[in-house]
Amino acid sequence: MITIKQIESPVVVTDGSTDVNLYAGQTYTCEVPVVNDWFEMEIDTLISASSPSDSFILPFNAGDLTVDWESNGVLDYITDITGLTDSRLSHTYSTTGLKIIRIKGNGTITSSAVDKNKITSVKNCGSFVFTDVNFFGYSNLVWDATDPITTIDYSFSNAFRSAPNLTNFPNLSKCLIASFRGVADGSQFDSNIGYLDLRSCTDMLNFARNVTTWSTANYNASLMGFLRMQAGDTAPPTGWVLKSNVPFHAGNAVATGDGLIARSILINTFNWTITDSTP
After folding, report:
1. Following DSSP, what letter does each residue of 202-254 receive, concatenated?
2. pLDDT, tens only, 152-181
3. Alpha-carbon gap, residue 33 to 44, rounded angstroms
4. CB-based contact 139:163 (threshold 8 Å)
5. Closest of 196, 99, 182 to residue 137, by C-alpha
6. What is the pTM of this model?
């Protein structure tokens, strides 16, 4: 909240489209949105993993990090990470249990992280830049963040595979995607991902293999969204072209209605091979 007190002469404030008149002798207040630019994850030190029950080892094998281990403003600067054995990635706490770690910078999340089972939630993505996204096998991970991931990695192959607690899918609206192979395989995935721009995607093989939780509503919306189709449309907008011959595994999902029309276009127009449970 910002307070503007007793201005001496009239002022016009504009956001580029709307003008607001501020009059002399008046007091004004305005809301300023607070942006959280930290990557935040919750861990539970007591979950059995490689490190002791009062410790945690970060899941990065490369990158440059600013780390607030205890969300108290005390920062560690870890530059030029040399791999998972880099001792600077480890921290010992004075108490055990749930902790929130806040991180800025850039780094590579790896499926080989020795303490990945201790990570229980991603709370926020912030401005952190993922040079690779690989949460494969993060068995206790829940994705609570709603802000988008920022990454320079175009392949999401197996990125969230075998993460059985994953139901909410990460926001990938800022990502260009070339491969979606096996991304949600073995999870409890159930999201509408129709917002994704798949015009560069060539591979969705095993995307949702072993997934039995993708609802018809979300599957229909995803299929329609891939083609940027609205309810009642019989074709995608002119100029909206996807790659041909893309293999797409949708688990046990079933398409109906407008989703079924979109599915048919993907198969018959773009020659996609779709594996699902649609009759």
Report:
1. -BBTTTTTT-----HHHHHHHHHHHTTPPTT-SSPPTT--PPSS-EEE-TT--
2. 777 889 999 999 998 888 999 888 889 999
3. 30
4. yes
5. 182
6. 0.83
